[in-house]
Amino acid sequence: MSSIPWPFPSPRHLFPSLKARINARAKRWARKRQGRDPATTRLGPGRVYILPTGVGLIFGLMAFAMLLGSMNYNNNLSFVLTFMLIGVGFVSMHQCQRNLVGLELTFAGADPVFAGQTIRIRIAVTNQSKSARYGIRLYATGTNSDIHDLKPGESMVFVLPLPTEKRGPISLDRFGVRTLFPFELFRSWAWLHMDISGLVYPAPAETAPEPPPTMTAHGHRQHDARGEEDFAGLRKYHVGDSPRHVAWKAYARSGQLLSKQFAGADTSSQWLDFSELPGLDVEQRLSVLTRWIIDTDRKLEDYGLRVPGAEFAPAHGEPHRRLCLETLALFDGGGS
Amino acid sequence: MAKPRGTDGSLLASLPWTLAALTISLIPHVPFLPVWITVAFLGCAAWRFVIEKRRRELPSTWLRAGLAVGCFVGVFATYSSISGVGPGSALLAIMAALKLLETRKRRDQFVLLFLSIFLVMSSLLREQYLWSVPYMALSLIVIMTAWLRMSAGESQSARQSFATGGRLLLYAVPLAIVMWVFFPRLSSPFWAVPIDTSQASSGLSDTMSPGDITSLSMSDEVAFRVAFEGDIPEPRDRYWRGLVLTRFNGRTWSGREPSISRSALSQIEVAGDPIEYQVTLEPTRQQWVFALDMPTSWSLQRAFMGPQQQLARTTPIDQRIAYEVTSFTDFRIATELSEMYRNWYSALPDDSNPRTVELAREMHAEAKSDRAFVDAVLQKLNREEYFYTLEPPPLGRNPVDRFLFETRRGFCEHYASAFSVMMRSAGIPARIVLGYQGGEVNPIGGHLIVRQSDAHAWTEIWLDELGWWRVDPTAAVAPERIDIGASDAAFFGVGQAWGLTAPSRLMHQVKLTWDAMNAKWNEWILGYGPDTQKSFMQWLGMDDPSWRKMMLTLISLVIGLILLISLLLMLRYRPPQKDEAARLYRRFVKKTGLQPQTGETAHVFAQRVVESRAAPGDSVSEITDAYMDARYGPGGEAARGRLRNAVGAMR
Predict the structure, then answer these.
(1) What is the pLDDT of residues B485-506, one digit of tens each?
(2) Contacts with A101 from chain B: Cβ below 8 Å
(3) Which of B601, B176, B201, B420 is nearest to A85 (CA)?
(4) Burial of B135 (0-12, 13-18, 19+ CB in 10 A)
(5) What is the C-alpha to C-alpha distance for residues A285 and B125, in angstroms, rounded to an integer?
(6) A111 and A155: one domain?
(7) Cβ B173–A84 below 8 Å, yes or no?
(8) What is the DSSP string of B396-414?
(9) Same domain membership, residue A259 and residue A192
């Protein structure tokens, strides 16, 4: 029955370009009209749009047929039924729009991912009203969040998964929030244009050469680790330095954050160097460096990163790792 | 291309509601549907539910196709047609049952819910009782709940969906009322579709063959109800004129198709006071329009008076209609009857009922005048042994002879027929009027109920000095039939025979109350047609109502109501006032009677309040905590609620 194919092309297939053009024009119009939205945006009634769905159109046709039937039979009770349904249609239109109006949307960050992974853009939606909001969904080109209900006063983080391909900053110029509640007769939606961005690290190389061996400061292989006990001096604090190594006494005296340098630490660290990967192009080198950073970090060893235009002294820890990966993600050839 | 047939239990939240919606909209059809359809539907519903519950597979396409073919053949075999409400609702039920078996996705249920709406609609086309509206409301709320369940997330309980569905329906009620009142009603259908052809006409027969049918139905069914402007006329004046039979072939009296006569109305001369009343006529599927003998004006559109002063409409009455009539019970149909018509109205077939003809001629020869002859015939029927019975013996050939000389038992048709044949035999023009006589007064509704059992036949004869003159031979035999009416006669008989007068009196009272409610229902809700609408619009103050004006009023009222609903929704969804916590806290401060000092924090102030014993420590610390949480913490609505309660509970 339903497996019998509909013999006519659906309008969606007949006018794909027309639909896309109308859509694009509407989006441009909305963008111009609404301007850029702040990081926390409350949906006013003027920016919640509404159109009937396919089911809504069928419902309308059915109501019209029922109206004709009632008129023809002059049957007052089927008039009652018909008008109740038409009334429900009107009411559900307003209910559908009100289900969105007043929601507050806030960009809640996006954790960086490696190229090829899916970046999860988090948007917090807050329902401050005294009534629950049902069937709320966020969407952007090619992606959808899950559907959630929001109780009165509730705030919930919606996740928009975006596929990534290339390293570098990724931004979402526009996303939407929509609902079909109550009867799926209408779809109401709002477009938002917030400053939403995330960062994509280079994809870690699947096959990478062994990371360079641990070097001494003079370029020799280190044979005997002398530990971290040999104090070698102070240098400016870098993000990622262990708090244990911060010269707190010096800080108390001068107000300047300084890290203690140990001879052992310096000599036992690895340098991951962009220039030491001959025969590979820039992206491949970045991929290999990423792989090395991940692997070395996992081994809880210190590592330094040297790329054209930037150099990070060996260290370990999450902030250091992030700093290094961010550098690789945003690498632009080192000014050359 | 084989579609996956497995189920995963994802419909368990919505399927029971969809099944309930379908069942509840099917119930009113059950008495009219062949039993196997109801059984098939319930079977499919149970089957489908078990499939979902146990996560089984849906039946295969071949099995479903087989079932579909079988069911459609079954419907066609039962009804031998597929149009009309009967086969239509049977098909809807079958389609719902079969669609259930292929419903796999959430959205397939849309089709099922549309089907249940159509089932509700077709049940309303079939029957429009007083309880149809509450039942429709019940069906709608279940359908709407099922609809909401279909797309509800897991956090929504069925109860919430039910409440939401009910709320949205409630919002729609004023809109529906406004549209119902103001939507212009058409006086004629676009196309004539028989509502239900299987139902025989319940009105009077177009012909009359006394002796063919041996028992008269004592149907309690209401033929029409009458609401009088003034007093209800005496029972003996309550002759409800219907159709007139003019031709007799020896066995059967027949009339003509309704036709318009321009002169019929002008032939009526009236005296006395006019009687004004409204008739609510149940559908008869015939053209005849009933009115108190003798109507002079009527409000029914497309109704006309025929040459024998009978009223008819151009189209059969297949809906309940209401119309206003003015009648006079004191009247004379004064007209010259030409020789041609005189012969026409006294024509009898040769060699039929010879004994009756002979008797009539003898009696006419003995009588001094036509008037005396009429009296003599009535006296014969009165004095000799003739009995009024609703179950007379069959009469066979020459029925009038057999009735007058042998069986001597009959009801109004027999007497009217015999009397007319005797008149015609003597050359006096005679015709038979079919209609109703009497009716029961409903003291609760103040109206008159005329039932099918009040059907009556009487005669009109032409006398030179009187014109057409009504003679009711039944009155000569069974005067009580005319004086108290058929219903009451039957009622008293039954009650007395069983010695159960009191309880049946009470039952009767309940019945009359129910009838009164139905009468109002019919008059105001079902009978709301073009005429009633027009007068209601005038009552509302709209002068010269037209569909344009009504439509404009409808649109502006609907827009107004929608704005109101929109406002209601806006209030419902408005965010809490930003400073509600501050406002509540100010109320608390006012209640303590103390004044916070500049720079004094809430906690310090609270301590001061407790020390001064202006308020109990518990409530002060609760209020302070809730206030801090609502205003500066993540407490949100919950903390505001706590604050509201605490401040409200204070002293």
Answers:
(1) 555 544 444 333 334 445 567 8
(2) 570, 573
(3) B176
(4) middle
(5) 78
(6) yes
(7) yes
(8) -SSHHHHIIIII-EE-HHH
(9) no
Helical residues (DSSP H) of B478-546, grouped into ranges: 479-483, 486-498, 501-521, 530-540
Whether the per-residue pLDDT at B608 is higher than 60: the answer is yes
Residue A15 lies in a domain: no
Write out pLDDT tens, residues B177-232. Answer: 999 999 998 766 565 554 444 444 456 777 888 766 555 556 677 889 999 988 88
Residue A6 lies in a domain: no
For residues A84 and A145, state if they share a domain.
Answer: yes
Which of A177, A181, A30 lies closest to A102 in space, CA to CA? Answer: A177
Enumerate residues 6+ apart whose C-beta is below 8 A from A22.
none
CATH label of the domain that carries residue A177: 2.60.40.3770
Q: What DSSP element (H or E) covers B76?
A: helix B61-79
If residue A219 lies in a helix (H) or strand (E), which one and from where to where?
none
Using CA atoms, how far apart are residues B130 and B589, in angstroms rounded to an integer?
58
Same domain, A196 and A249: no
Q: Nearest by CB to A91, from B133, B148, B172: name it.
A: B172
**Domain of A260?**
231-329
Same domain, yes or no: A196 and A313 = no
* Helix residue ranges, H only, B127-226: 132-151, 158-182
Q: How many CB pairs under 8 A join A and B?
A: 176
Examine the domain organization and report whether A251 and A190 are in the same domain.
no
Q: What is the largest CA-CA distance in chain A?
A: 102
Whether A135 contacts chain B with CB within 8 A: yes
Domain boundary among A185, A200, A215: A200
Q: Is A14 on the interface with B (CB under 8 A)?
A: no
pLDDT score for B104: 83
Query: How far is it, in rounded angstroms, from Cα B248 to Cα A295?
Result: 115
Is the residue at A255 inside a domain? yes
Q: Tell me the shortest Cα–Cα distance from B241 to chain A, in angstroms.
A: 27
Tell me what ipTM this predicted complex has. Answer: 0.77
Cα distances (angstroms) measured from residue B611 to each of B173, B607, B615, B619: 57, 6, 9, 14
How is residue B10 written in tokens? 């994802």
> What does A248-314 look like in DSSP terms, one character per residue?
HHHHHHHS--EEEEEHHHHHH-EEEEGGG-TTS-HHHHHHHHHHHHHHHHHTT--EEEEETTEEEEE
- A66 and A168 share one domain: yes
Residue showing tokens 């048709």: B413
Question: Is the CB of A84 less than 8 angstroms away from the CB of B562?
Answer: no
Q: Which of A50, A74, A146 to mutate to test the interface with B (most CBs of B within 10 A)?
A: A74
| Residue of B71, B293, B401, B412 with catalytic role | B412
Type of residue at A46: G
CA angle centred on A192, ends A188 and A196, rounded to 5°: 145
Nearest Cα to Cα of residue B604 among B587, B579, B621, B629: B621
Number of domains, chain A: 2
Interatomic CA distance for residues B439 and A112, integer angstroms? 89
- Å between A15 CA and nearest CA of chain B: 25
Q: Which of B172, B183, B195 sits opposite A87 (nearest CB)?
A: B172
- Find the distance separating the first CA and the last CA of chain B, reported in whole Å: 74
The reply to whether A9 falls in a domain is no
Q: pTM, whole model, 2 decimals? A: 0.70
- Interatomic CA distance for residues A197 and B632, integer angstroms: 30
